TrEMBL record:
It is an enzyme of class 1 (oxidoreductase). This is Carbon monoxide dehydrogenase large chain. Pfam families: Ald_Xan_dh_C, MoCoBD_1, MoCoBD_2. It comes from Shimia abyssi. Gene3D superfamilies: Aldehyde oxidase/xanthine dehydrogenase, a/b hammerhead (3.90.1170.50), Aldehyde oxidase/xanthine dehydrogenase, molybdopterin binding domain (3.30.365.10).
Amino acid sequence: MKDEVPTTEERVANLKGMGSSRKRVEDVRFTQGRGNYVDDIKLDGMLFGDFVRSPYAHARVTTIHTEEAMKVPGVLAVITAADLEPLGLHWMPTLAGDKQMVLADGKVLFQGQEVAFVVATDRYAAADGVEAVEVDYEELPVVVDPFKAMEPDAPVLREDLEGQTEGAHGPRRHHNHIFTWEQGDKDATEAVMAEADVVAEEMIYYHRTHPSPLETCGSVASMDKVTGKLTLWGTFQAPHAIRTVVSLISGIAEHNIRVISPDIGGGFGNKVGAYAGYVCSVVASIVTGKPVKWVEDRMENLMSTAFARDYWMQGKIAATKEGKITGLWCHTTADHGGFDACADPTKFPAGFMNICTGSYDIPTAYLAVDGVYTNKAPGGVAYRCSFRVTEAAYFIERMIEVLAIKLNMDAAELRRINFIKKEQFPYNSALGWEYDSGDYHTAWDKALNAVGYDDLRAEQAQQLEDFKAGKTRRLMGIGLTHFTEIVGAGPVKNCDILGLGMFDSCEIRIHPTGSAIARLGTISQGQGHATTFAQIIASEIGIPADDITLEEGDTDTAPYGLGTYGSRSTPVAGAATAMAGRKIKAKAQMIAAYLLEVHDDDVEFDVDRFVVKGAPERFKTMKEIAFAAYNQAIPGVEPGLEAVSYYDPPNMTYPFGAYICVLDIDVDTGEAEVRKFYALDDCGTRINPMIIEGQVHGGLTEALAIAMGQEIAYDEMGNNKSATLMDFFIPTSWETPNYETDHTTTPSPHHPIGAKGVGESPNVGGVPCFSNAVHDAFRPFGLTQSHMPHDHWRIWKTANGLGLHS
Ligand code: CDP
């Protein structure tokens, strides 16, 4: 017969706490069509808004004819910049310290820019109204190339800034120049380059792409004229920050604004910024007194909201003959489009690009970034990465390969001899970061052994022989990457957005019967927060995760937080969750000691209870303690059991990973087939291994997309050539390879539970890994650099350029 007293193992298993592969609780709703997304919100009398958008990338707007649109049945209003101007809402501040037109004010700067907002009784009438608006444009010369934009006679794009020599991030030296951001020691780096045995130099371009989440952006604004309260539902990755921004822009007192992010169908950075649709839906609701919904379609999403990357990175890397790297130099030209609407912490105009020394102990480095205006859509968001860390990782991982070619060395060995050593942590990088922890050599050796690296190289050499002998038309590429991420923005002293420090928060309330509700300042977009944050609480305070409800995204109920992006949820809000749990545990200890009639120090925590030290049969479970908190409170101590924590992390966390990809390339068709992809991630303490694996699979698939086909491309007239999913590559299960996942565990020394972020690592490490595999296949034929995306056509052209089609 089974013993009725559960064992410690059974009690631990019952909690489903940290380390357990608890199934995602969200999926019961999501897989049964019970999600509640912005477009599911239906309110009485709700109106619909739709945008008239510019077909031109650069043009003067002379007249907007709205009369015919107003005749369309159902159309109630057509709002233009002239209507917004008296309210001071025709321009809005961007997250990067620039300002951006809400609706075209005299000119347009990119194709798809918002020109007028049509409000109607239904979506179709609004779309008919958009068709009926006539706009007179005078075309202006278009610049889509950031280098041409900086030529002396380039057209002036931002006439509103003409004559301004100071921008939000220092001096502007040209009418299309936004900022120069410098990090590191320029003179010392140049001296190292001058004296080095070997210097490898290359231009590394990380093309423009787009996060393209399954759900596009949208909002529903509802102004209650009786109470004066504005409720705004939207696809917001940072609902509290949006509430503050709406208050500052509109003048509505912040307590009269309630921002709600309902379920979000993927964000990947796309839903961090503020868009014209949000402002216009609010204005339209205030004007009409009715709720107003705006939801963009796929083309609008791809054309106008939040692009990513578009960095031209000129690099030099210096080394000794033996391959010890002595210096790194990088000059980046960053194409920010028509407005600087990048989503980065204020002091980092190029995000965390200064992590571009990567996993390597590089003593001297210098980075300069020039931000430039062009006639492209604004944005510059962190598409599944911590600000610009993806660009940084791509840059260094390509430069390592370029250096390996120059030194005629194996790229795995070159990495190994330059890794920061375990005993060097905490490690201060030449560009100013303090890496918290890492064990790169162990991870690297594990990865190389797991794939049988030496055998793969032997097989590759044989295949090359066969190719040269005409026995095959396929080449084999082995892509290597060792990346270091920087996630968890961030210490308030370093990181703020619009002056709001980047801490985060968690509030936990324990109910009398021992179940709980927790609310956080973050917002899940598919990452499974309701599952994993409950696991942290379960382990911290001994209440089963299944008995904990988790809520995010409602500013009227959740504590203030800076939201979810840049893999910051676990490093920051996850830490707040543990700290709030510890406050509850401290009070629970007092209550337990009181009930057991012993001193506080004479009880200790044991999975789900406090036991008297040395007398384990005397205990109070958390369930009993919770009830007591509401009924037998300790004299002089407040009843109840709840706590809130606002956590300002002392440092960021530095997850890392070792990825290896084996590709077969058909030289005649340009097709690349992923034969193997091995991904080892180290995200410190692992909360839910199954969710981590899901995050890695998702991130790698987005990396595959970016490296192998996805691109927002423009022609020289500024026409967006990739604004449909026919042209913009989203991999299906057909294109997606199998992934082999693995891990090491190097806890963060400063995080309360030792966890680092993981959501973005696979994208950061995956892109260079796929790209390096393509390059590696052609290395014997003299290829050092070809630009992504490596679609079939470009691979075919590379093969052709190397004379492999003769
Ligand atoms: O900020 P975001 O949620 O996008 O990224 P994250 O903090 O890296 O977390 C992504 C998901 O992975 C969340 O559900 C985390 O709780 C989970 N995770 C985990 O289980 N263990 C870690 N060490 C890091 C994240």
